[in-house]
Design goal:
Length: about 220
């Protein structure tokens, strides 16, 4: 799929204000990785936080994953490596979330007990706090967006966030599916707004895949 990709004013418009603490995440990854087991999930495979009757965490080295809520499957967050998943809710006895590999990823698994021991041994509390704050902030921002804004404002934010995903991820998901998986909006409503934005030249779509955005209006009249 080849087409001219255009992006304008993205950095001024993306709602995510919490910077990813890459230095602290990498420090955690470097210390924990030697104790983790690398495995290869298939694309789209659901990864649970219970494995062989033990609580586990995941280290995402490369690629993209999405964080889903059990029950309705809504996507609460998406992340690309490097990242650690599951450390923010280590004490949860019955995890209400699961991870899905969005593409071919490099990932490893470690028991919650082992990761706790490594964090204590290496005194990684500061880095852990930065990771937890970032994770909580991302989910809080997502919940705030879908509960307080108009349908158009939600779609606008989701389009801008989609443009921040890796190109490989973006080329394998339609804009409509990306938005619907992360919101309570109806598909017909999403398609109607996307169609209007496309007609007005604010977005470029090819077979439903978002190739670019240009001067998305703040409000839709």
């Amino acid at each position: 799929m080849k087409s001219k990709i255009f992006v304008e004013n993205i950095t001024q418009s993306v709602p995510v204000s919490t910077a990813k603490p890459l230095v602290h995440i990498q420090k955690l990854m470097d210390c924990i990785s030697p104790y983790a087991e690398i495995f290869t999930p298939s694309r789209g495979e659901a990864l649970r936080y219970i494995y062989n009757n033990k609580r586990v965490c995941y280290l995402l080295h490369e690629g993209n994953v999405t964080l889903h809520r059990r029950g309705d499957g809504m996507i609460l967050n998406s992340e690309k490596g490097p990242f650690l998943l599951g450390v923010s809710n280590l004490q949860t006895q019955h995890p209400h979330l699961y991870v899905r590999a969005s593409e071919n990823v490099k990932i490893s698994r470690i028991s919650a007990e082992r990761i706790s021991l490594v964090i204590e041994k290496e005194q990684l509390w500061e880095s852990l706090c930065h990771l937890i704050i970032y994770t909580a902030s991302r989910i809080y921002e997502h919940c705030t967006v879908i509960s307080q804004l108009s349908s158009y404002e939600i779609i606008r934010i989701q389009l801008l966030e989609l443009m921040q995903e890796s190109e490989r991820f973006r080329m394998n998901v339609t804009a409509a599916n990306y938005i619907q998986d992360r919101t309570y909006l109806s598909r017909s409503g999403i398609m109607r707004i996307l169609s209007r934005l496309r007609e007005d030249g604010h977005i470029e779509l090819q077979r439903g895949v978002l190739l670019g955005v240009s001067n998305l209006p703040v409000k839709c009249s």
